[in-house]
Amino acid sequence: MTAAQQSREPSIRRYLEQPRGGPTALRIVLGTQLRRLREARGVSTQAAAEAIRGSHAKISRLELGRVGFKERDVGDLLTLYGVTDAAEREDFLALARQATAPGWWHQYSDILPSWFETHIGLEEATSVIRTYESQFIPGLLQTEGYARAVTRLGHPHGTARDVERRVTLRLARQELLRRDDPPRFWAVLDEASLRRPLGGPEVMREQLQHLIEMSRLPHVTVQVAPFTLGGVAAAGGPVTILRFLEPDLPDVVYLEQLTSALYLDKQEDVDNYLSVMDRLCAEAEPPAATVRFLESVLTALG
Predict the structure, then answer these.
(1) Residue range 112-301 in CATH 3.30.870
(2) Which CATH class is domain 3-101?
(3) Which of the residues 22, 41, 141, 142 has an alpha carbon 20 to 30 A from that of 82?
(4) Which residues, given as ranges, of the chain have pLDDT below 50?
């Protein structure tokens, strides 16, 4: 048995038969598989780059799933790595085609920054999403009115059409929590995000009622970090941790900034943020107290 055959992962066929998560996740899977083949054959990144008439940086981006794949490049890499079985090569090439196909969010490319497109793609493949928000209700839990208020705040010079398209995109993302096999969604909200009257009292009232309804779903957990806590473990800002069932997809920490985002997948970084999230969940009000807390905020609104 060749090294390439020993390194062959049965998940390639599984991803073809049961694709989950769209092109972003598939790019990461394919990149991981190609990296394993390269390392099993003892091929350097420089030699791999020369085989596809590219650079070391291009191989790095391909193996991390940061860019799309050309079938010709995948074919040349497979040849270099000693993958000669026709059926196995076709599996890789078919996965490359799927990984290059546009996701449903491609129709919003005119208003969707590339750094957030990656987040949506990863979101589609998750099994667990854990998030902490200090200022706003998480996007996956926002009502249309609240999403519109947040969008206007973040894009004060945007046209009415752009604002509505951003709102429509946000609502489309929420279908993730309504599908037959939704991910587990666990959100910790700072009390400030509940008290800040974005969009006015009526919008906030509707938003709070929606949070109560969502928190009652079996796959959704909502906790509140009250003001009485003082400082909280995640004082550095909002944090989202994405976890996946597939072994080829490492946990990812998502840190959104004003005009960009950081994606951390090194185990040390992920472990640090998991520890922060665990402490935050332990310090926040228990999930069983969430509805009562939200109802008290509703009552204060009048």
Answers:
(1) yes
(2) mainly alpha
(3) 22
(4) 1-10
